[in-house]
Structures are given as structure tokens and as C-alpha cells.
Write the C-alpha cells for this entry.
Amino acid sequence: MPRSLLALLGAIVALGAPASCLAQLQPSVLGADPAIGHGVLRFPQALAFSPGGAFVWVADQRSSVVQEFSRDGTWVKDVGWRADDRETGRIGTVGGLAVDRAGHLYVLDSENDRVQVFRTDDGTWLGAWGSNGTTPGHFRLGDNTGAGGLGILQPTATDPVLAYVADQFNHRIQRFTLTGFLPPGARDPQNPNVVPAPTPDRVWGHHADCSQSGCGDASFNTALNYPQGVAVDPVADNQGRHRVFVADDDNHRVVVYDPNGGFLAQIGGFGQGDGQFRFPYDVGIDARSPRRLYVADNNNHRVQAFDAATLAFDATWGGFGPGPGQLEFPRAVAAVADDPQGGVYVTDTGGDRIEGFNPDGGLMAAWGIAGRGPGYVTRPAGVAVDDDGRVYVADTDDSRIELLNPDGSYVGQWGYVSSASGYSAPNDGAGQFSEPAAVAYDTVTGNVWVADTGNNRVQELGRDGSSVAVYGGPSPGADPGQFSGPRGIAVGPDGAVYVADTGNDRVQRRDPDAGTWSVVDPGTPLHAPVGLAVHRDGTLLVGDQGRVLRVSDGAAQALPAPPDAPLETPDGLALDGDRLYVSDAAGDRLLRFDLAGGAWEVLGAEGNGLGSFVQPEGVAVAPTADRVYVADAGNDRVQRLVDPAGPPPRTLHVTVYGPGTVRSDPPGVGCRTPCDATFPAGTAVTLTATPDAGAVFDGWGVGCTGQGACVVRMRGDAGVSAVFLPAPAAPPAAVAPAPSRGDHRAPVISAVRVLPRAFRATRSPSGRRPRGGRLRFRLSERATVRMTIVRIVRGRERRVGTLRAVPAGPGAVTLRLTGRVRGRALRPGRYRVVVAATDPAGNRARTRRAGFSIRA
């Protein structure tokens, strides 16, 4: 069972307020814990032995940590943690490892185009060299590829170290002579901010592709095509040379050079036969007699062994599969250079494990916890919580949605599962995903929405994971309902779905009634928006580059910046009433903003401990409002922050229009006029509406729909309105009934909108008379229309007055809004017009609303 680590997060630091004024939160990790290190592997692809072979060092693509194990697989320690801005002592994707005889661990930090050096005994960072570029001393190593691209030679602990780097995307080998453990001019602890480009002793190689024609021509002797692995023969040949073996990956060969880059020999060629390769990733040499050369033959899913002196083929083993001794895309090999027993250890990259073999291919050891297995996540970017507290995680790099119980235990996963590997994988079928970046729960329907980023689409799924609908994809599109790399999604209290259409620099909205998509007008250009949240009053909050925008009625207002440092990438937004949680991914922090009071708080800063974050993305608040969930992407985990004081009570505001009463279960509401009641957070409050004698209940407004019971779950403060109307008078007996239109169907009001969305109700400063606005809608049949104007104050409707009734319809209707009610001009602010209609037979239409603003 996954373990849950609980520790008290220190007092939250309030910007501009004493820390003692604020509550403390308790952080824990959901799902499997520890999430990184401690034997957990995510595509391991770098491997090295310590001198003598007692310990094995392993690094992978996605965990940003180097792990030390004993030779039988017992975990010893972790070194490093994720670097998201080239921080020293922290690492990214690792493409190679080496250990010298003086206690130094060398890490080829491919993602950051550098080599870093640590002490092997305690993991202390010692120095680094290299940066991105093409000139000597610079590297182009690649973010997610490379294996074994670092080899060293140090005959004794007092000898200088020769370090060879397979500079993959520059198609060359660079050699450095180290003074102590660094080349001259490298970065060291006394000068940590210098980015060095030390001059290598030797550089050789140029790009040429001889994979199809064969590499026998002498012109290809120093040609390289994405070299991956490099190893140095610890034993000198008969001419005193320590030969350098290079896995020339895309030329499907292994090339042997002298220490200065002089060509000596080659083996291989594309194929599946003995001595042939399909993308050889790495090479290693053991100390048995005669010494053996081992090659990680990646796409042939095997290891091949050769005589290291003559290069004659000796043996092969492996084969695709998860079974003992089988291999799924082996990328790195390591052999003990001073163990006469020989043998090799292999990173079974696709299988998330390490396997050790004797020289004859017999399996001696195997270990590894799959970081793609149940309860683990890799770079999660989204999180959501349903009304029962179940957690949905957009496990982005694993291309799945993972489900967790409220206590963090694993429930299951949605998405495509490869029959070959048994792990989730990208795919484009309904209910399958490619790097999903966001997930949201719809409190109206109970469905789950997913921003299926890699498939350029949005998916709606039932709570059982069944596909309900797919919108957009698979290619990017710019029409309404089409998407380009969507990375954010949110569902409003009315069921409207909002999507951060990131690649198109816009937000789209799906109407919950019509099911149509439209582009939200924010009143200002957006730049790759990601984070989204919807306030209970319908206001949309958008996390744009460097800012959070409050969008309503075609206008946007930026929230004030935090006083300590501006926002960088607010990729995650979540609301708890008027408290807005913001994950600033590039700023490596979690913040909270009071929409009512305007104050910022920092809830967590950069780090890999509990309550700290690296590149946090999605945020969600539980229905009980006492816990916040954060997709801590850079730390490959989801964190839960719990308020030990419990959630504060929530306020339900009920507005009553007309002659009637609204009551609640549990008790608390009994309103004939606007009233407030408080309930525990998360309570499901059922409201019923009872009209007075001679009146009828016309329906719910804000917060609910229809004319039945209204259920409000108190996730935060909420507001509901109820409309009662006088009962229509019975028609005179002598009047013939109107022709039947299908059992006296009620009229239907649709397509309600106000144009323009904002206008003046008084003269402009220049003296120009106000033009007012136009109310447009469609009416299915002739009816008497009544319009009520309500003002929106802190998310609640305040009735202003009712306009005179007018006959209208059928078809399109346009009515003028002057901005005046009962002769008085409306004050600047946000309003809604509530449209009601009654046909001659007394049938009432369902009321509809449209928002507008009065400008100053």
C-alpha cells in the first residue's frame, strides 16, 4: 500500500502580513511515496559501476536524480533533484554516468548540456562544466535522449582523469583532461555563477549518414551520426593505447578510435543478425580474460558480446519482453573494469528496471520499481476532485488519467495500455490520451473533462471512464470547437466548459444548453493561456503569461502582482469562494489571492521536500474546502495540503422574486425576501420553492435550473435566485381555445444577448447622449414578455426593477435597453436582464438571462 508522509509545513508567509496571522497547512504526497528515487525508475538510461564493482549508479530520463545501489539492487542513496533553470547541484535528463577512483561521480546532464561532479560518499556537488553550443567545450546533448555518453580513464586514484563525452547533436567526441575532477576553467563552488566553456584536449568527428550505403569507405572513418555511448578500454593495447569505443547510434555500428581520435576499427551494420545492430546505444568492457565488449543493441532488444581485442562476435541474449532476462529497449550497459569475473549490467529502459548478467548471459540480478506503475505519476500537469473527494490526475508524460481515493490510495487509470509493455502509452482513440495537461470535474453532470493536449482535442468522460464526447483533433485547428495544444480546462457552476486553447492564444467556451463552442472575448490579447477558473458569479479567471486576468462581459482586469516577485507562468488556478489558488510554474511556488481583500500569500516555495514545489501546474480544491491538491510536476508527484482547523462554514445567499417562499434541507433557509444562511463546507443543500396562493413558481435563476428541487453543494459561498409570478387569469369561457401546438407547449426563449455588452446610461463626458443597448432573443410563439433588471454585487443578484410588459414574437425579437429603470439611470457596474414570457393560454417560458455592463 502507498505510504502517506505527513509533516507540518511551516507558517505560511503572508506578503505584507505577519506569519502568525495565518493558518498552517499539513502537506502529504498522494499515491505512491516516495515518488522519486528509492528504487523508482522512469526510463533508466545511464549506468556506471564504482571501482571494484561494489556499487551501481543509475539515472533515468524523467526522475532528475541519480541513485546508488549495492550490486544486488539494495538502494543506498539519491543524489541531486530537478533543475528547471540550470541550477548547479540539480539535474535534468541524464545521458551518462561515470565514477573515478578518487571518489567522484560524473553526471552527463544532457538536458542542460553540461557535466556535473559530485562526491560519491555524500552526494555533495563539487563543480560543473559545459553549456549549449557548437564550439569546442560546448555541447548539444538533447533533452530526452542519450545513454552512456560519458566515459573516463583513471588508472590509479592519483592519476589525472581523461573524460570523453559523446556530443550527440554535434556528432563528435570531446576529450578533457581533468585537474582534480574538473577541466581547467570549469565552474567550481568558489565561482558558482561562471558558465565555463573549457577547451578540450581533443575533438573529433563530423556528421555523415552511412547507415544505408555502409560505412566501409575510409571517408566515413571519423563520421558520426548521433553518437550515444562511449567507453574506454582500461587495458592498453600492444602499442600502449587505451582504445576508445563509440556507439555510433544512427550509423548502426561501433567504432574504435585511439585516444586522439585516430580510426582503428569498426563492427556492425544495420540488421538483426549476429554482429549487426539496430541503433546501438552504449558500450562497455569488462576485466575478464579475454576481455569482453558488450553492446546495448536497443531496437533488437538484446545485448551482444564481442572479444574486446579482436572484435569477434561471441554471444547474444535478451529478446523483447518483461520476463527475467528479457529486455525492452536496452539503452545502457556497465561492466566492471577491474572485476576478473566479468559480466555486465543493463538498463532495461522500456521495462523500468536494471538487470545484471554474467559473461555467459545468465541472469544474476534484477530490480526496479516502475515509475509508470499504479500510484506513480510523471510530470503531472492537472488535478481535479469530484464531489466524493476522488482525485483525478492528468499524468501527462504517462498519457493517462490516474484515479486516487480521498486517502491517496490508487483506484485505477484511464487511457490506452500497450499490450507489449503493460504500461499506458499515447494513442488517439476515444477515451485515450496523448500527454493530457488538464482535467476538470463537472458538478452539474458528474462527468470529467480532459484537455487531451497532444491530440489537440477535449474529451468528456463519464465517471467510469467511458467516452461521452470528443471535440476537436487530431490535427490542430482554429475554428470554434477546434484546438491547438489545449493545456487548461475548467467547468463553471452552470456547466459551461472553458478551455485554454493554448496554441491558438485564446479561451473557448462550450454552452451547456446549446452544446456549441465559441471564443471568449477577453478584451485583450492572450499569450498562450493555461490556467483557468470560474467564479460562482460567472467571472472567468485566466492565467496568461505573467498575469492573471479577471474576464467578464468582454473586458479583462489584471489582478495586482504579488509584491515580492511578479508572476511568471500562472499555469494552475483554483477557487475556494473568493480565495484564488495560483501555481506559478516557472516561479516554483504556490500562492493564494483574496479576490475580496486583494492580499497575496505564499503557500509553498521551490524545493523537493514536503510543501515545496518544482514547476507546479494544476491546482484543485476539495468540496470540503479544507484541502488543496497540487500537481507538483517537477517532483513527479501530487501534493495535498490540509488545513488542520477544518473548512470554514459557507454562506448560501437566496434571492426571492415575487410571492413565494424558499426553504432548505437541512434547515437554515426560509426566505420570502433575500436572505443568507451558513452551512458546513461540502454540505448538499436541497432547496424547494413554494408559491403563495394565486402565484406560480417560474423557475430557478442563478445557481440552479428548471422548476424542481434545487441541490447546491457548498463547495464555497453560493447564490441562488427563485422567481415567482402571479398565476395567469383563466381565459373567458366564451373564448375559443387557441389552436393546439402539441399539447399546449410552453413558449421557448433562446439566443438571449445584449449588444453591445457595455454601454452608458448617462451622457458621456463630452456631452454625447447615451445610445443604450439592444436586447435580442428568439421567441417560439407570440407571448407577453416581461424583463427584470438585476445588479450583480459580489456574485449575488440584487433586483433593480421590472420593465413594462410588451407583446412580442414569434421569431427574432429586438428590444431597446435605455439603461434606465423607472426613470432612473443605472449606476456603473455589472447587470443581468431576466427575460420571462407567457403565451395567451397561460403557458410560461423558462426564464433566460443575459449579462451587460453600464460604463461610467
